[in-house]
Amino acid sequence: MGSSPDPDELIEFAQPSFDEFQRQTSLMTSCNLLWKELSEHFTSMEQNLMKKSEALKLMIETLDHQTQTSIELLKHREVTVDHSVEIAAGKADERARAALESLEKARDIGSNAEDDGEVDDGDGLLSALKSLCLKMDARGFWDFVIARKKELENLRSQIPVALVDCVDPPKLVLEAVSEVFPVDKRGVEGAGEKVTNDFGWACVVI
């Protein structure tokens, strides 16, 4: 028969196994805690990334909406500008046709006016004035006015209407009256000839 084991030997044999178990238990606990900490960290990172992704998505959608709105506004403005250009071109064509008609009508009237110093009626006077205004003929405009002192009332009413069709009304008026205002140049041209005609009334009318 074999001898029975010594109790002290059993204690010595069991002691290392228990210490190893405690060590492994402590290691597993540490690993679990570390895993939990890492899981929480990555979960927090994932949530933050999702929030940032949603914010970025919302920002992109807002920018897309603003871009689309801007494009629509630009298209609307382009259509409006095109429409305005068409209207302006139409008005320019109308004015060009009216100017040509006025020039054609005033051609004969102007010739007759140079011959007898008179025009047939108010419409003829207006046509002649418009013709001169359209051509920016300041000297012709001045000569035409001073030759018609008897038609002063008609001139007062028709000159403003005729000047509307002028390219640069102030320039035409200033050049027209510059013959006598602010300095009367007729004395210089007459080489000593005494000038007696007072054209102040014409300056006022123009």
TrEMBL record:
InterPro entries linked: Frigida
Organism per entry: Noccaea caerulescens
Lineage: Eukaryota, Viridiplantae, Streptophyta, Embryophyta, Tracheophyta
Keyword vocabulary terms for this entry: Developmental protein, Differentiation, Flowering
Family: Belongs to the Frigida family.
Protein name: FRIGIDA-like protein
Residues spanning the signal sequence: none
Organism superkingdom: Eukaryota
GO biological process, one term: flower development
